[in-house]
Structure formats: structure tokens, C-alpha cells
Design a protein that fits this description.
It contains 13 helices and nine strands. It binds nicotinamide-adenine-dinucleotide.
């Protein structure tokens, strides 16, 4: 029987893209894949995907194209650069870009593709590699309502919560507003916990107190930055896994650019950006972002 599901092309099979493509295969989609790294494609082929020779090749038959790339420059050159896929995509195809990039690039790519009757939504994610693997990502979509509705069954195969934030670019803005707040919460929680420790309190007891008081927040609930408070948190595993410091630094850079363009006051975000930059420069870029706790706990304290 003819498969009624749309044919999906997936470009960018890194830490996030590979498990996302795996979940599409598990849900029964026919998936063709392309990445610059051959082994990334080989792994997906073993799980049932079709491997393409080039980006042009992978999109030729595709009804829906998903990209999961490092930054805005990669997305721009993939779709609308000199050798852009705009020349190869089927008219009427839907492009879902799940990379975290600047909203301006998302809007520009959307408007150029629209001139060729190619639909585009930005759909960045929250949930990290764990969420990508478990198929529980949060997708935050920017774009037209009908494209959002069209994308839903595909996004639901990879995620649990799917939001329509607004027009093109709104997904990217919403994502970095959230991550800017997350960085501030992580820093605030870290400094409060360390001050409690410095004054002789047990961080587990202090965390329990704050969890039942007005300082309660997501980091205390699920992602305590102090080692050995939460057995499953990255802090209890030498800050391995989770969401890397350098990715938080990247998102804070995007947040600061966005704030500048909209003339928004973001003093807390700016401070978080500085502190995450220092932490990265000190060699912690590959650790989980909750390792910012060490910026407080390892400081030489003068009496
Ligand atoms: P990654 O570096 O692991 O993967 C990116 C992949 O894209 C690589 O395999 C690379 O070879 C491929 N690639 C780059 N240019 C390409 C091109 N022109 N054609 C084909 N393939 C190309 O990155 P990641 O951790 O998977 O992150 C991807 C995106 O998701 C980023 O925008 C990141 O900010 C965002 N994100 C990451 C996380 C996370 O925890 N890793 C969480 C949320 C969002």
C-alpha cells in the first residue's frame, strides 16, 4: 500500500538531529538524510533511512525538509546561498528549520523561499539531547497557521509540547527569551546555594527550603547545580551531558542581539552572558551549563 505520510528529508544529523531523525523513522515516516559527516548518515541508514549524496539530492523528492544546523550562517547558505536549495526544493514543500538561530535570518529565508511557493517555519527546540532522544522536545514555532498545522504530525513524532509563538521568527525570539531567563535562574540559584553553604548550611536542606518558598524555580525542581543534591542531575556526574556551556553562551549572544534590535533592557541577560563567557574561557565550554555553580564555589574567598 502507498505510504500516505509525507516524504521527509533531514539535514544535519548531529547531537540533536540524529535522535530526532531516529524518532521520525520509529513513527513510520520515510526519511532521507544528509550530513557533511559520512558516519552520521551511515548510522541513520542502519535504522532505515535513505542516504543522499548531496543536499540537493536529499530534497528533490521531499514534501517536508527539516534542518538542524549549528548557526544562522549555515541555514542561510543551505537554503538561499549561491548553491541554495531554493533552486532544488519542490514547489509547495514545507521547510522546518529547528536550528537555534537569529530571528532575522529565519525571516529572510522564509520570505525568499515564499517567492518560490516554498513554505517555511522556524521551529527551534527546548529539551536538549535527552529530549531529542526520548521524543519529548518542546517545539516553538514561528510561521503561518496553516504551515504550523501541516507540521504538527511531524513535530509530534519528535516532541511532546508544540507551541505556535507567532509569525516567522517568533519561534526563535521565544526560544532565546526562555534560555536567557534560564541562565539567570541558574546563576541566581547557584549564588544563593553557595552563600548558604558558606554559612554552614546543607545544600540539600537549603534546596528543600527554597523549593517550598518563593525562590522556587525549574533549576531547583529538576536541575540542581550543586553536586550530590540530585542524583540524576549533571551536577552529580561531573557536569557531563545535558546542555553545554558553549550552547548557552551562543543563545545569550543571540538574546543580546535581539534585545539590541528591539531596544529592550536586558541587564540580567547581559550579566549572564559575561559570566558564561568567563566560565567558557576558563575551559568549561563543553560542560553542562549548571557547572556555572563552580564560578561561585571555587572562587578564592578573601576574609
Ligand atoms: P551539532 O554540531 O552536534 O550538529 C550539527 C550537524 O550539522 C553536524 O552533524 C554537521 O556536520 C551538520 N552540518 C553543518 N552544516 C551542514 C550542511 N551545510 N549540510 C549538512 N549538514 C551540515 O549541533 P547540535 O547540538 O545537534 O545542535 C543543532 C542545533 O540545535 C543548534 O542550532 C543548537 O543551538 C540547537 N540546540 C542544541 C541543543 C543541544 O543540547 N545540543 C539543544 C537545543 C537546541
Amino acid at each position: 500500500m502507498e505510504n500516505q505520510l509525507p516524504k521527509v528529508a533531514f539535514i544535519g544529523l548531529g547531537n540533536m538531529g540524529a535522535p530526532m531523525a531516529h524518532n521520525l523513522l520509529k513513527a513510520g515516516f520515510s526519511v532521507s538524510v544528509f550530513d557533511l559527516v559520512q558516519t552520521a548518515m551511515d548510522n541513520l541508514e542502519q535504522a532505515g533511512a535513505t542516504q543522499a549524496k548531496s543536499a540537493e539530492n536529499v530534497v528533490q523528492e521531499a514534501d517536508v525538509v527539516i534542518s538542524m544546523l549549528p548557526a544562522g550562517k549555515h541555514v542561510e547558505s543551505l537554503y538561499v546561498g549561491e548553491k541554495g536549495l531554493i533552486k532544488h526544493l519542490k514547489a509547495g514543500a514545507l521547510v522546518i528549520d529547528s536550528s537555534t538561530i537569529d530571528a532575522a535570518t529565519s525571516k529572510m529565508v522564509a520570505s525568499q523561499l515564499a517567492q518560490k511557493n516554498i513554505h517555511f517555519i522556524d521551529a527551534p527546540v527546548s529539551g536538549g539531547v535527552g529530549g531529542a532522544t526520548a521524543g519529548t522536545l518542546t517545539f516553538i514555532v514561528g510561521g503561518d497557521q496553516q504551515d504550523y498545522v501541516r507540521a504538527l504530525p511531524i513535530l509530534q513524532a519528535m516532541g511532546k509540547n508544540i507551541f505556535h509563538a507567532g509569525d516567522h521568527g517568533a519561534g526563535q525570539v521565544a526560544k532565546i527569551c526562555n534560555n536567557m531567563l534560564l541562565s539567570v535562574l541558574m546563576l541566581g540559584t547557584s549564588e544563593a546555594l553557595q552563600m548558604a553553604i558558606d554559612n554552614g548550611l546543607d545544600p540539600k536542606v537549603m534546596s528543600d527550603i527554597m523549593l517550598q518558598s518563593s525562590g522556587r524555580n525549574w533549576t531547583l525542581e529538576l536541575y540542581n547545580p550543586c553536586p550530590d543534591v540530585m542524583p540524576n542531575a549533571p551536577s552529580s556526574h561531573d557536569y557531563q551531558g545535558g546542555f553545554m556551556v558553549d550552547l548557552m553562551k551562543k543563545d545569550l549572544g543571540l538574546a543580546m542581539d535581539t534585545g539590541l534590535k528591539s531596544q529592550s533592557a536586558t541587564p540580567m541577560g547581559a550579566l549572564a552572558q559575561s559570566l558564561y563567557s568567563i566560565h567558557s574561557q576558563q575551559g568549561n565550554g563543553q560542560l553542562d551549563f549548571s557547572s556555572i555553580f563552580n564560578l561561585f564555589s571555587k572562587q578564592e574567598k578573601s576574609k
